[in-house]
Description:
283 residues; 10 helices; four-stranded parallel beta sheet; single chain; flat; alpha/beta
Amino acid sequence: MGVRRAVKLAENTLKTNGNSADLYTLGPLIHNETVLKQLSENGLKILDSDSDFETKKNACVIIRAHGTTPNVLRKLSENSIKIIDATCPRVQLSQKRVSDAALGGTQIIIAGDKNHGEVVSLSGFAEKGGNSVCVVQNSLEAEKIFVQKKALLIAQTTFSLSEFEKIEKILKQKNPNLQVFNSICNATRDRQSALCELRGKADGILVVGGKNSANTKRLYETACSICKKTALIETESEIPDDFFLLNRVGLTAGASTPDDVINSVENRLLEKSASKNPARTLD
């Protein structure tokens, strides 16, 4: 939902203002090269650093689905830059929870990838409250941190559910009164759960999504653990030839993968498999 919303906002902005303003996104809008290429061809550019703000006065900047920090928002406003906020509503809710808790003197613990845009954003909102913030990427890191009497555990929306549950268990042993907000997106949970159900049912698994997407990489790692023959691809042109000879192929996709890309992979598999094995029926 958050990804579709961000892309739709960008497309609408290009249609409305494409000929009258410099249009940028603050970092890649989403982690999918296919979508980014299409937006770029239509005139959308990427700002990789806030050091460029002063040279972009009166431009229009789209805040990506991952969100950004209060400090960056302030700098954009100071430079008279028009802001279009495409932050995922789920991330916005997490930002508010983090900010409110930090202002109340609560330690903020974020389960997520340290350099992920959403985690950077949440950390910024925690620091706005003047309290300490800690990012843990896995259960091993959770073992090493100190948990204060007032503490909140929150998750990157695309974080691994199983890893989050391990982290929660470890931190609650340190502080039974730990507040926990499981902010993992339903779509992320469903994809992870559905993928696990393919164990023993597929001869090979294709994971469709951006190779720089954190949640897509997690899906790929999970797929590798349940099926020896697994490949991570971004488009139908990258499907390995030997997958067309398999009886059953499992398909899954990252949160930033558009439906039309997933459909094109499925159609390519069906069409080419049928041509190579005309007598075989595919499930």
